[in-house]
Design brief:
- By secondary structure, the protein is α/β, with parallel strands linked by helices.
- It is 42% helix and 11% strand.
- The strands form five sheets. It has a five-stranded mixed beta sheet with strand order 2-4-7-6-5, sandwiched between helices. Strands 13-14-15-16-17 form a five-stranded parallel beta sheet, covered by helices on one side.
- The longest helix is centred in the C-terminal third of the chain and has 21 residues.
- It starts with a helix and ends in an 8-residue tail after the last helix.
Length: 584
């Protein structure tokens, strides 16, 4: 039982009650309870198990009893009874982009749509278009959403699998039969989505280790098991494979199973040029060849050196020039998490965040950051409780006051007063130049009218990034991984415009976005564009998203000097043209 399970159960109860048409106050109580559970600083699971939740704001007696039952028994009768009132397939509909509880309820009650397959058939028959509040365009969008989901049904976001993957890896490394272990495959290469996860372990007792792996609670289903390999599904459906090899084979096996396929083909070609064959277990002298017998490699770095290469970081192994760069000594020194000194794009309770200014600041200080930018939504993002001019000016004043307090206390930390300002349909910004000039910096982002033709969307964004008050462009393509395709936009044209205006481009570290895509960063850097690594944190815990951003930045060949938030506080004040201190 985890904090996430408690919160997700309360969220699902709220959803089910909404489907039933229950009292809105009752629904809101469960959603508030879910937020409270997610944000509570202590061990909420242990407190619930011991039935000591009384007095916690947001958790009344009814929720207290339910959380105690769930934490102490692993299930909740009320939740199970509610779920039994609906077909299991109905919950698939909530995962479709653009379908909220009210629309799902209408589709279910009026057309009997109780699964993705059922909804797809109704759309193809034209029945959804006839439903009040839908129409032909809505029907078409639903079919597009279903097709998108079907195409990505067996893929998982990097951020969604990171927790269980790291837990399994830690457990493997602690096993007495395991000499060393790593995660390989696309997860190790920091691909933004993964199909499955490969674990590799060195052991002298492979069968024992494989049996243990397949028998752990994480294995919801054993797909296959042999003396040196096991494949299992986690409860989420993610497939995890364990391969057990000898210690002498580990380095070559790790290189092979990390991939990518294209990188491996190029590596095998390099080995052949030198008289060797390279496979998943070893480097050997080619049959009939006269090359020197290779040593046993203790690490991938030794294998790379033997082949005349500098060590190639896993994130770069996509056969995108990394082997040539490694051969010529031209690999970049990639960004590291410890290089970051602050970040810019974060939200508070003032808009759609879950923590106060002070709480966000304290969390950033705890992480060792020197500055934290607050960029709550602007007024046009009404769905996110965007700030109007009066509320934004009040927030700026509050930030200045907090900075005075930090300085008086001797705390070397600064809150930066920013705003995530909507780029309107015509490319203008959501606030006038006077208010924009009162801010320390501006993040400009698209949040609506995402179906514009490519030329119109490109013109819109190019116009916005040319504004002298815009510091950086937020989530350039608007994609939501596995949920929503990027909107149509000419990315090279936007990069060119940012280069001309000196506007930084955000790498949004939220695992649902990871936008701008890693494939574009080498082009952006070549044009002289700086990257701003931003977690888009809506609560204190999401500041940790910076770690995902660093992995994707590395995959995009980014160095410390390419990222603006590696600047220290004095450096970022100079970059933004701010007087030191933050309380002027």
């Amino acid at each position: 039982m985890t904090r996430e399970t408690l919160a997700e159960t309360l969220e699902e109860i709220a959803l089910l009650l909404e489907l039933k048409g229950e009292n809105p106050f009752k629904i809101r109580a469960y959603r508030t309870g879910a937020e409270t559970v997610s944000q509570y600083p202590g061990d909420i699971v242990a407190i619930a198990r011991e039935d000591k939740l009384s007095g916690i704001k947001g958790i009344g007696d009814a929720l207290r009893q339910k959380l105690h039952e769930l934490a102490s028994t692993g299930s909740l009768g009320f939740h199970e009874k509610l779920k039994a009132e609906f077909p299991p397939g109905l919950f698939e509909l909530f995962d479709l982009q653009g379908l909220g509880p009210k629309k799902v309820k209408a589709l279910y009650e009026q057309l009997g749509a109780d699964s993705l397959a059922g909804l797809k058939a109704l759309c193809e028959a034209g029945e959804v278009a006839k439903l009040p509040g839908f129409g032909a365009k809505s029907q078409e969008k639903i079919l597009e959403a279903i097709a998108f989901r079907e195409a990505n049904a067996d893929r998982f976001r990097l951020g969604d699998v990171a927790g269980p993957v790291e837990e399994i890896l830690a457990a493997l490394r602690q096993h007495p039969d395991c000499l060393r272990a790593e995660v390989a495959g696309s997860y190790r290469r920091a691909k933004e989505t993964v199909h499955d996860v490969d674990f590799l372990a060195a052991t002298s007792r492979p069968e024992s280790l494989v049996d243990w792996f397949a028998g752990q609670p994480w294995a919801a289903r054993v797909i296959a098991k042999g003396p040196t390999k096991a494949s299992v599904n986690l409860a989420s459906g993610l497939q995890c494979d364990l391969r057990a090899v000898g210690n002498a084979e580990f380095a070559c096996a790790l290189a092979y199973f990390t991939g990518s396929k294209e990188h491996n083909v190029a590596m095998r070609g390099r080995a052949l040029e030198r008289g060797y064959t390279l496979n998943e277990y070893r480097l050997s002298v080619r049959e009939g060849g006269e090359a020197t017998e290779p040593p046993v490699f203790e690490s991938e770095a030794e294998l790379h050196r033997f082949l005349g290469l500098d060590y190639i970081a896993p994130e770069l192994r996509e056969n995108a020039g990394e082997i040539e760069a490694a051969a010529g000594g031209d690999l970049p020194r990639l960004l590291e998490l410890e290089n970051l000194r602050g970040t810019f794009h974060n939200h508070t309770v003032a808009s759609d965040g879950r923590n106060t200014l002070e709480e966000m600041a304290e969390a950033a200080i705890e992480l060792g950051l020197q500055y934290l930018g607050i960029a709550d939504h602007s007024k046009s993002s009404f769905q996110a409780n965007g700030l109007d001019e009066e509320r934004l000016r009040a927030q700026i004043a509050e930030i200045r006051a907090l900075n005075r307090r930090f300085r008086e206390e001797g705390t070397k930390f600064r809150l930066l007063a920013g705003s995530e300002v909507d780029i309107l349909k015509d490319g203008s910004l959501d606030f006038d130049d006077g208010l924009l000039g009162e801010l320390d910096y501006v993040v400009a982002s698209v949040h609506n009218a995402m179906t514009l033709p490519e030329a119109a969307m490109t013109e819109r964004i190019v116009h916005a990034v040319g504004h002298p008050r815009v510091t950086m462009l937020g989530h350039l393509t608007g994609r939501l991984l596995l949920e929503r395709e990027p909107y149509a936009v000419d990315i090279p044209a936007v990069i060119e415009a940012c280069a001309e205006s000196g506007t930084a481009i955000e790498l949004n570290c939220n695992p649902w976005r990871l936008d701008l895509d890693w494939r574009w960063w080498r082009h952006a850097v070549a044009k002289g564009v700086k990257c701003a690594l931003n977690p888009d944190a809506h609560r204190t815990s999401q500041l940790d998203y910076l770690a995902f951003g660093v992995r994707l930045a590395r995959k995009g060949w980014l160095r410390r000097e390419d990222v603006v938030n590696t600047l220290d506080l004095a450096g970022v004040e100079e970059w933004l043209g701010l007087p030191p201190g933050g309380c002027e």
